[in-house]
Amino acid sequence: MVKKIIKIVSISLLVLIVAAFAAPYLFKGQIVNLVKKEINKKINAKVDFKDVDISFFRHFPKVAVGLDELRVIGTGVFAADTLVSAQRIDAALNIMSVVQGKDMTIYSVFVESPRIHAIVNKDSLVNWDIMKPDTAVATPTTEKPFKMALQQYAISNAYINYRDETAAIGTEIFNLNHKGTGDFTSDLFTLKTTTNADAVTVTYGGIPYISNARAVADADIQVDNKSNVYRFKTDKITVNDLKITGEGAIKNLAEKGYDLDIKFKAPSTDFKNILSLIPAIYKNDFNKIKTSGSAIFSGFVKGVYSETVMPGYHVDMEVKDGFFQYPDLPKPLQQINIKAQVDNPDGETDNTVVNVEKAHIEMDKEPFDIHLLVKKPISNLFVDVAAKGKLDLGKIAQLIKLEAGTKITGLLNADVYVKGNVKDIEQQKLDQFTAGGALDLNNFLYVAKDYPTGVKINALSTSFTPAKVDIKTLDGQYLSSNFSGSGQINNLLNYMLQSKPLNASLTLKADNINLNDWMGTSTDTTTKGPAAAPFAVPANLNVLVNTSVDKLHYDKVDITGLSGSLKINDETVTIADVKGNALDGAVMVNGSYSTKASKTKPDISLIYNVDKVDVQKTFAAFNTVQVLMPIGKFIAGKLTSQLTLKGKLGDNMMPDLMSLSGNGNLLLIEGFLSKFAPLEKIASTLNVKELEQIAVKDVKNYIEFSNGEVLVKPFTVKVNGIDMEIGGLQGFDQSLNYAINMKLPRALMGDKGNQLVNNLVMQINSKGIPVKVGETVNLNLKLGGFLKSPTIKTDLKQGAENLADELKQQVTAFAKAKIDSTRQAITSAVKDTITSVKKQAVALAKDELAKQVFGNKSTTTDSAKATARPQESVKGLMNNLFKKKPKDTTGKH
């Protein structure tokens, strides 16, 4: 009997164990289908995940359901952004709901290594607005496939990047770990949370207010689900070494938004805690620094926060008799006294007041003082700022530990004051605005890892007036280039405080510039790397630079006597009248590069005029010549050319050939053509040795190009007593479709050539058409195939039809293709505009999926787009607008 019971129990246990292992596979299909169905039902985005992992053991006795390698990619203007990615999202569900495939109750959620990239673009569109509108009518009997009964959640190793382009606010957080526990099903419960992050950076207006700070926050939050109020009080918040206490309440408003009432302060009065917020000091032996002095830091946030309203806030900071010194450095920074407030009583940006009543420091007993007051930043910006004192920058290394290899020297002397309403400057009421003083920098040298040879400014002298900042003197060196200049900045305050485009004009002179060094041009032709991404032209610049360079070297080209102007405005770089001596002749270039319409496919335009330049050197220097005039590779001689083109840049900053269109002319002043396959083919077919190598002079032809084809308009040339009229089409792929009318003396043809003519005569006579051929033969040649493998068809020319008439069909097809291309471009632009307008018009949808899965009001998303280094982008632009093709033409990038 006992043996039977043991046997039954053993079999039962075995069946249960097998069932536990088999169940995930039995129910996996229905869970996967349900997850995908619900996601697609709720989200306007591209959602993908590698697998669904189901286990009855990972969260026993609950069922563990995990989504592996989840990615959510945006649509519309954010189609290139990965909004959210996560290595795994793991949830614990009740067993019976999994078996039934409905009413799935989620008890815990764990998110591993998420990357979240939240963007508010300049048009106020947000990339996390991916929820479809909830059109379902709620009824008491409506069943939801997922129900929340959360007891715990956790996020580990998260990366968060938030960027608001409308407010110039950015936040970046590395290795964020956060978890919370509590009974979310209760009306009133305590949510215990712990949070830490390795590095937090917060910027506003391009200024980092917190930079790579280590942050920790532990708080017990009292959650009242009936009134939607969350209260907390904690003394466990630290930012680097600054300890902060906080308390307050957050109420979730039914009309969207939150009512905030939060207070915070630093209980310690030690100056060293405030000092820890300076990254350059905190990261270098901060625990060894000797400090003294007291500090006060406190503030509050109070009011409604929503999509349209900001809460009021106030921050106080004061430092008294601050002092710090590294024990192994000779000089202290002392008498640090700062008193500052930032106040906004109601959340209206225009009511913000920034008041730095005083900021005083002494470096080696040399005082430096600053005060700043800013009010009414939107409606009528008022500013009162002054700075006075001397700073010996060479003593910084005696005060602060710099990175290895970093050196800085120089003497800064400032005595500057500005006071008044900025509108008075704009309205030319200069008598109501005061500004004056000067700022000088002498013998400045900065050496660092990115600038190993150093940047040197021998002298920089500026003076301030109500209307502008005059740059009287600028003299320095960079990468063996000596430069000097002068100019003026017309709206420095508007640029710094109101984010208006910087308006400036400068004149610069340089003796010798090697752009290979400036752009980091590599001589290693085997190196392969990622394609250079287009650089976006800043929208906040309106700068004109007039420049002259005695000698400029780029790759293998030297330009002497270079002069011209460069203007940056409206997200466009425009170069005008850039001219110099190069390629054994003269070169003049005008053009533009714009990322206003597209950041990934910049618009380009180019007009260049080369006069009496060497053909071979020009062919090697201009990649457009290589495409439009491949014959240049086989010509030795002098060339004059004018060319106008427009189009777009594509991959690796190379011109998108199919987008190029334009026209121009090519005048071969004098040259010698040899080893040219089409010419050799003609010479061989006609048995005329005089055509194998020819000398030409004053040959001019006009071209027009579009959609990957070049139309060569008919032109005449006489070579060795042979009159020729040439015209037709050639492709950017080096395909040929030319017609040639030729008056060929029979005396120049050998037996093979004369036999060819006799055969042509017989063919025509056999058709009943009497033809007589004299001493000069009128031939019509059709040149086809490709540049390296041409084909020739010959015929006797009959009648007086000229080449322009013969090419009428080709010209008509070329013109139609050009019109169709333009129409397509306009249609595409209109569609893009309509799509953008529709996007902005869509009402904000409820974040239903976030409610069901996470219990939050919204989810944020991720983009892992790589940013190209600026020098690589500039190098790519220069290479591909004016230079030859990349050296590595076979490597795949």
What does this protein look like?
This protein is an alpha+beta fold. Among the domains are: about 120 residues, no CATH class; about 150 residues, no CATH class. The protein is built from 16 helices and 38 strands. The protein has a 38-stranded mixed sheet that branches. β21 and β22 form a beta hairpin. The protein is globular. The N terminus and C terminus are likely disordered.
Q: How many runs of DSSP E, i.e. beta strands?
A: 38
Major beta-sheet overview = 38 strands, mixed
Average pLDDT value? 77
Strand residues, percent: over 45%
Number of helices: 16
List keywords for this structure.
single chain; 893 residues; alpha+beta; 38-stranded mixed beta sheet; 38 strands; disordered C terminus
Write the layout of secondary structure elements.
Elements: H1 2-42, E1 46-48, E2 51-59, E3 62-73, E4 82-93, H2 95-100, E5 104-112, E6 115-120, E7 146-164, E8 169-181, E9 188-204, E10 207-224, E11 229-239, E12 242-252, E13 258-265, H3 271-275, H4 279-282, E14 290-305, E15 312-325, E16 333-344, E17 353-363, E18 366-375, E19 382-392, H5 396-399, E20 407-421, H6 422-426, E21 434-448, E22 451-464, E23 469-478, E24 481-489, H7 492-498, E25 502-514, H8 515-518, E26 541-554, E27 557-569, E28 572-582, E29 585-594, E30 603-614, H9 615-621, H10 623-628, E31 635-648, E32 661-673, H11 677-686, E33 694-706, E34 709-719, E35 722-731, E36 736-745, H12 751-765, E37 776-786, E38 789-796, H13 803-806, H14 808-841, H15 848-853, H16 870-882
Parallel strand pairs: 5-7, 6-7, 25-26
Antiparallel strand pairs: 1-3, 2-3, 3-4, 4-5, 4-6, 7-8, 8-9, 9-10, 10-11, 11-12, 12-13, 13-14, 14-15, 15-16, 16-17, 17-18, 18-19, 19-20, 20-21, 21-22, 22-23, 23-24, 24-25, 26-27, 27-28, 28-29, 29-30, 30-31, 31-32, 32-33, 33-34, 34-35, 35-36, 36-37, 37-38
